[in-house]
Automatic annotation (TrEMBL):
Its main location: cytoplasm. This is Cu(I)-responsive transcriptional regulator. Keywords: Cytoplasm, DNA-binding, Transcription, Transcription regulation. GO terms for biological process: positive regulation of DNA-templated transcription. Residues 1-69 form the HTH merR-type domain. It comes from Microvirga aerilata.
Amino acid sequence: MNIGQAAAASGVSAKMIRYYESIGLIPRTVRTESGYRVYSDRDVHTLRFIRRARDLGFSVEQIADLVSLWHDRERASKDVKTIALEHVGVLERKIRELQEMASTLKHLATNCHGDARPHCPIIEELANDEAVPPPLKPDAKFGPLGKSPAR
């Protein structure tokens, strides 16, 4: 099947399929004499695996590890579990950060009159030069889709 058919069958866009191929997440496919990519049912199955992993928020690096483990019939399930639990920790940290942001914004909104007056604690907080910016998060070094530039 061609890339459009593989995209439709897997739920992964053609652009992302080309990207995954360029970074080695999926193997380079066979090409026709005219240069068109040809995908097998196995390729589509791998793309679906990747899509489900992305839907769960795994990074590209983690997905590469999971795909490798998936193809390794001698794998230890503890290796898969370790990746999953590390990701759960990251998700829980993000949830806490989002809850803190929501709490701060609720507090500011509660203290904003929300009327025709110009005074607004939300704007004041955003404009506060005295506020200390939060430290960069460890995952801030990753680019789009969690891909490390060094990879």
